[in-house]
Design goal:
single chain, 142 residues, alpha+beta, three-stranded antiparallel sheet, 5 strands, globular, binds zinc ion
Length: 142
């Protein structure tokens, strides 16, 4: 994971996590990187903030990693909608233009994950330490 400090054309500054620099380039080109303030997809990188400090710092790696994991959990919990078991259908609807794009997170079965990858739906696996605690279930909408 890599964290970028980004800014939109309106000079709103925000941060976003990507699996690597190619993922950032790809998502930006496809206008998937969006300013949380004004929704602009015309964004550019500010100074790069690497996720783990270099080893010459006096921060033990485990502490740095735990801190990063906590930051990622916090980031996801505050900027992404939790969609629970509906993740695969939500992600697919956005990918095929049937729903407006918004950041979501949730759970998929291994089969669903495989299907999303095969269809090219952009979704990132979230290793356990990076997954926030699911919020309490929403009331059913039907
Ligand atoms: Zn903006």
């Amino acid at each position: 994971m890599i964290r970028y400090s980004l800014a939109c054309v309106g000079e709103h500054e925000f941060e976003a996590w990507f699996s690597d620099s190619q993922a950032y380039d790809r998502q930006r080109k496809r206008k998937l990187v969006e300013c949380p303030t004004c929704g602009s997809t015309e964004v550019h990188k500010q100074i790069m903030a690497p996720t783990v400090r270099s080893s010459d710092r006096a921060v033990p790696a485990e502490i740095a990693a735990a801190k990063v994991a906590a930051e990622i959990r916090e980031h996801i919990a505050t900027t992404h909608d939790y969609v629970g078991d509906s993740f695969a259908s939500e992600a697919r609807a956005m990918y095929y233009g049937e729903a407006e794009h918004r950041p979501v997170w949730g759970e998929v079965t291994p089969d669903e994950a495989k299907e999303l990858v095969e269809e090219g739906v952009p979704a990132l696996p979230l290793p356990k330490p990076f997954a926030p605690a699911p919020p309490r279930r929403r009331a059913k909408l039907n």
